[in-house]
Design goal:
Length: 336
């Protein structure tokens, strides 16, 4: 089945559905929230019942994204209540926040134990880690999942209103670093221009993202730079933030409000002269979260992330492991 056929089938399934569950990845970024916003806008126009969910939603961080207020951080009830489940921008089933429940559902479906099992669609631009959806629409060449959703709308001749245009553009700007990252393809730029023609507001989005800096966030930047270590032989720039440092700089509410802060910082580190790979580690709830970035075509940081059970893109990836951060003479290490 080619891409056009997949996109057409996805729309048919949406139109036929009576109750839809939308899922974005845990600890969502702007692309995940915006992707949910795109499909919420469509489903509302079709007057279909739905529930949009993302685990650990950062309340207050993405209020500028249309339909953000319609996305819940509360886990949905029985998954069998839905006849269609759409998973967006998750990269892997373990990033849905519903992995155990989804695996039990899929197992029951495969064993024929469900009379009317939910149909599962996956929209994603991450590399595949496993195949589990009934319909997998995955294209890693897309700069963002919202770019892929643009093709879904375009292929099915669906109206792109102002809200949808803003969502698509926000996702593109977020995942390309406002078109400064190397995934800023000519196709992504063309989609962005189309969104501006359809009413997306670049000044408004920019005011909420790149221009939305504060004294608080600058202090976090300063601590990361203070902790920065650079290995000139490998080109690895690494920094880390321990729990006590984060707590002294940011309240829980501020961490939610500035959800993209750490992503912005590691992207900046990857742009420094002589840096091949940038790594930012931070402690959170007994775990260590690692963010990896590179601007070099010959590097693939998703391979590094997979070594710690994570994943992502060739030039942007991440992982989460249990443990704490410890400083060494040459950099940082994670200890159990």
């Amino acid at each position: 089945m080619n891409r056009d056929e997949k996109l057409e089938l996805a729309y048919q399934k949406i139109k036929q559905a009576k109750n839809i569950l939308l899922i974005g990845h845990t600890g969502p970024d702007a692309d995940a929230i915006s992707s949910l916003g795109v499909l919420i806008e469509l489903i509302k126009s079709l007057s279909i019942s739905y529930y949009a969910y993302t685990e650990r939603k950062p309340y207050g961080a993405y209020t500028y994204v249309p339909n953000e207020e319609l996305i819940s951080g509360v886990s949905p009830d029985d998954l069998k209540d839905y006849d269609l489940i759409i998973i967006l921008d998750c990269g892997a089933i373990n990033r849905t926040g519903l992995e155990d429940r989804l695996r039990r559902l899929i197992k029951a479906r495969n064993e024929g134990a469900l009379l009317f099992p939910p149909y599962i669609i996956e929209f994603d631009h991450h590399n595949q880690s496993e195949s589990y959806a009934d319909l997998e629409i995955r294209y890693p060449d897309c700069a963002s999942t919202t770019e892929l959703l643009y093709y879904f709308f375009d292929n099915n001749n669906l109206e792109i209103n102002k809200n949808t245009a803003n969502c698509i553009l926000i996702g593109l700007l977020a995942d390309t670093g406002h078109f400064l990252h190397t995934n800023s393809s000519s196709e992504a730029m063309l989609v962005a221009s189309q969104m501006l023609l359809r009413g997306a507001s670049l000044p408004k989005i920019t005011a909420h993202t790149t221009q939305n800096k504060s004294i608080i966030t600058l202090k976090v930047w300063g601590r990361v730079l203070e902790n920065l270590k650079f290995n000139s032989e490998t080109g690895l720039a690494s920094s880390a933030l321990k729990t006590e440092e984060i707590n002294s700089l940011l309240t829980p509410e501020e961490r939610e409000k500035h959800a993209d802060l750490f992503s912005d910082i590691v992207s900046f580190l990857s742009s420094l002269s002589g840096v091949s790979v940038a790594l930012l580690l931070r402690e959170e709830d007994g775990h260590v979260k690692g963010s990896l970035r590179t601007n070099h075509d010959h590097m693939d940081v998703s391979i590094l992330a997979k070594n710690w059970g994570g994943g992502g893109h060739k030039k942007a990836a991440g992982f989460t492991v249990k443990g704490k951060i410890a400083a060494t003479e040459n950099g940082w290490k994670i200890i159990s």
